[in-house]
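Entry type: protein chain
Record version: 2
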Amino acid sequence: MVTSEELNMTFQKVGNDFGIETKAEFAAFRDLKIKWMRTYKWAEFTVSDFLREAPLEVIEDIAVTIFSKIKGIEHEYSEETVEWLTSDEFVEINQPVYIARDMRIGSDEGEHKSIEDSLNRLKDRKLISEDLGKIRLFWSKRTSNEQSAWSSMLMKVITVNAGLDSEDTPDNVLDFVILRQIAHVDSDFRKNNEDRKQAVLETVQIYPGFDSIQEWLEEHGFSE
């Protein structure tokens, strides 16, 4: 486990290399993120405690990536960092905490619709793998007239809008919504957001009735 002192010292070391005086501390964010405030030669970082179990080399590489971004320098995560962030170990350590913190997450059982039945239909049609690994799916606690579903790629958690837990929701619509989120969670972390979106689109566009499902979601007030 990385201590607060080790985190601060690592960020200070990297900050010195970039000519920036630095302070860093952990915080219990809902999501995996790093926030910072900075002036020309000073920066203060608040780092998600989901990184507490990361190797120090990963912490240092993440710090280098952030400082590079601040300075406008191109720098990608190292292979070691990508491997750790996308590892089963990362999910096993952090997923339960993430689920407990995300107050939007409700039950995995619906009143009118079944996520499990939807997954079985997708598996029967060979649209998703029989083994979803660490992926967990839930309904949201409350209905939201926004996204039909959302997910965390690294935490491997999918939340389906409770507004779709209705007898009026066609099975193929729910199946499509879940398929799209699984495609997102399974996409390549190394790619940028636009490339990942394109990869997901290419996966779901082949789903039968793609256009009519999009229209149904829009008519009922759901975005992607």
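Comment: The radius of gyration is 20 Å.
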